[in-house]
Design brief:
It is a single chain. By secondary structure, this protein is of the alpha/beta class. 44% of the residues lie in helices and 13% in strands. The protein is built from 27 helices and 22 strands. The strands form 6 sheets. The chain has a 7-stranded parallel β-sheet. Helix 4 packs parallel to helix 6, helix 9 packs across helix 11 and helix 22 packs parallel to helix 23. The radius of gyration is 28 Å and the shape is globular.
């Protein structure tokens, strides 16, 4: 089957490549040099001589004209081509099952893909039969292009999701029509699998079949793209325009393949970046790139016009005193300061409470809010093992976002586990049903510690990818919490080989091998700090340190064996990112935990919030502290207990409502929602 026509411009190959190398594409100006050609014709003001990179393929000629008409220097570097799948067995199998009545819902995501799907299916079945079968079920069109394609083929969609949109709008539109449990859904894919949409449908009980119709590949002539990437990396480009999510993927993958991924990212951070719409923007953010311009209407002309109008002012900000600072991080990577990107959430009640500033109501989130008590979570868990859910970013992101949307809490917390950093330590971590985490090769001697290899946080990059997905979905509305286990709790698991009641092995190790203990704790502190900074770089707005087992210690042991290492972790976190420091059974350690650091101290249910806060001289925000068992009481009792804790806080700035530990698996969901609603209403100060 022939390729779709995507590379139609003669100047993109052959002699055109030579013109790119000589800097003569489009306007006659050098893309590597902003000086104007004195013989060039006059152009309409807009870009004012800025060098504009576009990655368009089909519309490349039109993009050049648009950029030049608005005074820009066009650097056009096609980033993809569409290649239909030959012998598309998936499309033919879909057609057979469609005619057999196997599907309840079919989702069409693109116009080109809709036409290509029918082209493949009609090699076996008449179009009229296929249209009749689709008319009997629910069909969804995402945006005007699939609508147009469907109407050309003789059918009308049941549900229209207008632009601009993302996969989540598609999901919400379907959910609004009724329960998806037990429904069989087919998705027409468009080159790259939409794992988030699939996971979202599965979380709501649907059975999903994906139907690929073509794949996106890099262009045959990649020289223009390489030259454009070099220009971006070297600072010889000012503006970038992306018109599809697949462009983003190909551009970044090409940059990594060329060994200049980091340089290209830093180059984009100094440029004005325009995106055609939410799906494209989501992919840019998933790669850690900021989106400066997204037009109200997802049209190429609107994107170019708005980018031309705003690019100069954006560049003045980025390249002036307020541009994003790139700082050196410990060996493994460079981390961009997130201060500028977090400004949109600066006045969110959750962020203000962390800073002990007055809020219009008391913010609330709940530990383990994405957990087994939620039916949406259980549906995903039935299909996937726990560690698989942690290690597959689209699954971790889906259960994280679903919990926020279902509960209406004031913060998301990424779905993960405190023991994930033990995986690259090669100690044999696994989870046994009924027994929890097991360590096959515990640490009991200096030789055992020496066996642990150097830890690269990139081994846990799946957590960062999940954070990027969550940040793309809700990051402009809801703060996102990243987290890690504290060094003492991680050390205890490593030494005990699993859970413990008395911590005999841990304390014996601590008392009899103090030098090895401190060496182990220092290694865990470095690992934890790097892990948290990786989460922050990915988009976490707040981080929480869980010291679940530190309550087994007395004050003297905490001060000698724990405090310096926990303090080292907290000191390594960027100052603009709030840190929540939480432990259980720590009523005797609160002052020492405060000394170790953190902007917020988490309180368990065993202390009175008013007394604990007074002991701390109100010098830190506090989080807590309803007993999780209280959620099994009736709703009036839950409201009464929520009011009592709010009364203990007395409206003082810096209180974040939470449980004194995580939600238990048997907790009724409606009781959780009743608590959240009660806190919002009872604490309202407007």
């Amino acid at each position: 089957m022939p390729e779709f026509q995507t590379e139609t411009l003669p100047f993109l190959g052959g002699s055109g490549l030579a013109r790119l190398a000589r800097g003569k594409i489009g306007s006659g100006h050098s893309p590597m040099n902003p000086e104007k050609d004195p013989n060039a014709p006059e152009v309409t003001p807009g870009f004012g001589g800025l060098r504009v990179v576009a990655f368009e393929s089909r519309m490349a000629a039109e993009v050049v004209k648009m950029i030049e008409r608005r005074g820009g220097i066009a650097i056009v570097a096609p980033a993809m081509r569409e290649v239909p799948l030959e012998d598309n067995h998936a499309a033919l199998e879909f057609a057979d099952r469609l005619l057999a009545g196997d599907f309840d819902i079919v989702i069409f995501l693109t116009g080109v893909g809709t036409r290509a799907l029918f082209q493949a299916m009609e090699t076996r079945h008449p179009r009229a039969l296929l249209i009749t079968a689709l008319a009997k079920i629910t069909t969804v069109a995402r945006g005007p292009k699939p609508i147009r394609a469907m109407r050309e083929l003789g059918m009308e969609p049941s549900i229209v999701v207008p632009e601009p949109n993302t996969w989540r709008e598609v999901l919400n539109a379907l959910s609004a029509r009724g329960n998806l449990g037990g429904k069989h859904v087919a998705i027409q894919e468009y080159g790259a699998s939409n794992h988030e949409l699939t996971a979202g449908l599965e979380a709501r009980g649907a059975s999903v079949t994906v139907v690929p119709v073509y794949r996106w590949m890099l262009p045959l002539d990649r020289a223009p793209l390489r030259a454009a990437l070099d220009a971006i990396a070297s600072g010889a480009a000012d503006v970038a325009i992306f018109t599809s999510s697949n462009q983003v993927t190909n551009v970044m993958q090409m940059a990594e393949a060329e060994g200049i991924g980091g340089e290209v990212k830093r180059g984009f951070s100094r440029m004005a970046v325009g995106s055609i719409g939410p799906v494209c923007s989501e992919q840019l953010r998933a790669y850690g790139l900021a989106v400066d311009i997204e037009p109200q209407h997802s049209k190429l002309g609107h994107l170019v016009n708005e980018t031309a109008a705003r690019a100069a002012s954006i560049l003045a900000t980025k390249r002036g005193a307020s541009r994003i600072e790139v700082v050196e991080a410990p060996a493994h990577k460079r981390v961009a300061s997130a201060a500028a990107t977090r400004s949109a959430l600066a006045n969110h009640p959750m962020m203000k409470a962390c800073r002990r500033e007055a809020t219009s109501y008391t913010p609330i989130w709940l530990m383990r809010q994405a957990g087994r008590y939620m039916p949406e979570y259980r549906r995903v868990r039935e299909r996937h093992e726990f560690l698989e859910m942690c290690q597959r970013p689209e699954l971790a992101a889906e259960v994280t976002v679903t919990a926020v949307e279902r509960l209406n809490v004031d913060a998301a917390i990424i779905f993960a586990d405190i023991l994930l950093p033990l995986i690259p330590m090669e100690v044999g971590l696994h989870f046994e049903k009924g027994d929890g985490p097991i360590i096959d090769r515990p640490i009991r001697s200096p030789e055992d510690l020496d066996r642990i290899p150097p830890i690269d946080p990139d081994a846990l990059s799946f957590v960062g990818e999940a954070i990027k997905l969550v940040h793309s979905a809700i990051g402009d509305k809801t703060p996102l919490i990243g987290f890690a286990g504290a060094p003492f709790t991680l050390a205890s698991y490593l030494i005990e080989g699993g859970s413990s009641r008395q911590y005999q092995a841990t304390k014996t190790f601590m008392y009899t091998q103090p030098a090895t203990w401190h060496r182990l704790m220092a290694m865990l502190a470095r690992t934890t700090a790097d892990y948290l900074k990786m989460q922050i770089a990915a988009g976490a707005d707040i981080v929480q340190i869980f010291d679940s087992w530190v309550g087994s210690l007395g004050p003297d042991d905490f001060r000698r064996f724990v405090l310096p290492h926990t303090a080292a972790v907290i000191a390594a976190i960027p100052a603009e990112v709030p840190v929540i420091h939480f432990g259980t059974v720590t009523g005797n350690l609160l002052e020492l935990m405060r000394e170790a650091g953190g902007d917020v101290l988490g309180l368990d249910w065993r202390v009175n919030l008013a007394d604990a806060w007074a002991r701390l001289n109100y010098s830190v925000a506090v989080q807590g502290n309803l007993d999780p068992i209280a959620l099994f009481a009736d709703v009036p009792e839950i409201r009464s207990r929520a009011r009592a804790i709010l009364d203990q806080a007395a409206g003082r700035p810096g209180h974040i409502f939470n449980l004194g530990h995580g939600i238990l698996p048997e907790t009724p969901v409606d009781h959780v929602i009743a608590l959240i609603d009660a806190v919002h209403v009872l604490s309202s100060r407007t």
